Amino acid sequence: MAGFHLTRDDAGADTRIEAARTRFVSHGFTQFTPIAMHGARGFHVGYIHGGPATIVQTGEDFAAVAGTLIYDGRIGAPALEALLATFEAPFTAWDRCSGQFALLVRKGGRSFALTDYFGSFQLFHDPDFATLSTSFLATAEAQPRLHWRAQGVYEFAFNVFPLGDDTVFEEVSRVGPFVQLELRADGIATHKVEKPLPDAPSTIPLEERIARNAAVLQATVAPFVAEYGDRMQCPLSGGLDSRLALALLRAHGVKPHVYVYGEPGDEDVRVAQAIGAAEGFAVELFNKLSFATIVPDQFAEVVARNFDETDALVTDGGLFDNGGNASARHARNAGGQLAVSGGCGEVFRNFFYLPDRPFRARDVAQAFFARFVASDATQEFDAKAFLGAIEIKLARALGHAPGDRLTRTEVEQLYPRERCRAFFGREISLVGRHGAYLMPFLHWPVVNEALQIPMDLKRAGRFEAMLLNHIDPVLARHMSAYGHSFAEPPSAAHERDEWQTLVRPPWARRRSYAVRRWLAGKTGDEHGGLLSPIFLGRVIDLHFPAMRRFFRPDQVVKDFGLYRRVATLEYLAGRLGSRVADA
Fold first, then answer.
1. Peptide bond before 90: cis, by omega within 30 degrees of 0?
2. For 207, phi and psi rounded to 5 degrees?
3. Phi, psi of 71, rounded to the nearest 5 degrees
4. pTM above threshold 0.90
5. Are 121 and 66 in contact (CB under 8 A)?
6. What is the pLDDT of residues 377-404, one digit of tens each?
7. Please, what sign has the CA dihedral across residues 477, 483, 489, 494?
8. Which domains does the chain have, with CATH numbers?
9. Where are the extended beta strands (E) located within 417-462?
């Protein structure tokens, strides 16, 4: 991500900066550039594995980015130089700018901090903005006392990462997409900004629609092609999104290094390797589970290293594992290569699996975010209040009040504005620290076009398959994990699977997770991890002294993913020690 850290410029600043520097070194950063803004001092760090420039300076003026920023179709120093030359506050030149990033600009005697269009790149701060940092841990460790934010704790455990601007602590929040900060000698001033998106589908002909979406995608990828050429790492699986990302690169003549995660015989592996064999390119199989065999005595060291590198709150199995996830992250940017992702491709599909009609935010909360069984939690948990808080966050992200009716396209906006921001935002902020990261489907021009697709075309990936077939018909014709190629309409089975969810009303879907848990007894997830007592007991107290306030460990163990996330919070409490007031 590159990164930066700022603290209030007062008598204790040097001590706090040194502590933050130590934390950033533990993240893996080595290149530190001191920076000073109005009322604040700190540092900027470059990519761990190298890559395009992430800071440019002209006298006392500078622009420093964490993440990956595109400006006027350029990347690196040319992009930052052009942005600095034309920067005006508040920043509204989104027709010239895209990517996922956090940005600092000092120009003409004023200083500003802002995030990308969706606020997806995570920028943390404390209640009075004495700390502003791309590191969650550095921000948390700058606080004399920390208190669990119950809503954030439950959202992290049940839905992978908190929505809105929350984290798991009351004292640490994230800078949102609709505010830009001005750093002044006497403190922080906030500037509210509008970031509109379409609220209804367009009515253009299908062929024109496909061509427009393809053109926007190709324009998004073009700066990366110019900068990196073949020096890219691109995933491939049995689904649509990674194949579309690869198609975009192939259309530009790029021959990236292609890889697939999984084990021999997995459907994703089988499909990806079959495509590679047919089209004459290698597909690396990276098996995280067999990356290394470790014994319990080694586990504490591996987990501590994972914790430091992933800034504590990792969304996959990368904390309690054998080091395979960390190795994969490093490999994707090794030698300054570009990491490519198919994440957020569901912007072209019906992500929430809701019918084509208006809804309210509470409907979306019930249909998608009610992944809990109340008996997993203690009396601290109130299901109605939990979903009510999510309803407020969803409505606020759209500029609505809770209870307002939302157009179906506004519901679709919640995917990039909230779901991607929370889930993929964490991934962007962690993977992207090693080098530049291309997640094309979350660039706002792409989202802007995708939101204008009628819902009928989004059904069962119909439009995304047409888009892939338009860009790269050779890739499209290969079999997928859905049982059909993307050069043909979705199969009856694929349509039926989606329809079975569509016909269930939100109040019924609220109970879906609980029903699946009841039927399965125990559930796993694709991320795995070394969660048996012989391993986990080496790094946390299995009585969960911190998390017993919120959860019943004997119940959450029935869902391995949930158990892992609760254990992650327990480990976080142990590492922060007495700083956590109610641990």
1. yes
2. -65, -40
3. -140, 125
4. yes
5. yes
6. 999 999 999 999 999 999 999 999 999 9
7. negative
8. 3-192 (3.60.20.10), 206-288+323-348+431-489 (3.40.50.620), 295-322+521-583 (no CATH)
9. 437-438
